[in-house]
Task: structure prediction
Amino acid sequence: MVHVTLKNMTEAPAVANIHESANRIWLAGLGAFSRNQEEGEKLFQALVKEGEQVEKRAKEMTETKVEETRGKVVELQGKATQQFGRLEELFQERVAQVLHRLGVPTQEDIQEVSRRVEELNQSVQALKK
Result:
């Protein structure tokens, strides 16, 4: 025979409440785990898409900068070539001035003398005939 006492009557609902609370906490934990798996995958996919977009923008920016730099290099090469050409002209002019002061004939002078010698040769050949 079970003796029902006041103490037994108040402890039974408390134990049942604790058991019910523990069961609900367990179920809430399972639900949180399940939702975390589902939403975690969605979050992962969203992060992958965002990463792809960031990578694409970075590549586009890099390509733009490379093209800008390439254009500047070509421009600087052109300017350097012009400056080198001008420097070469100045050098040739100065050398020609020095040679002229020293009395060294220029290529034009030599060509003129050669032309005159050829004319004289033709004149001599004509006189011989």
Notes: The helical segments are 6-101, 107-128. The chain has one domain: 6-102. Residues 6-102 form one domain. The chain is about 90% helix and 0% strand.
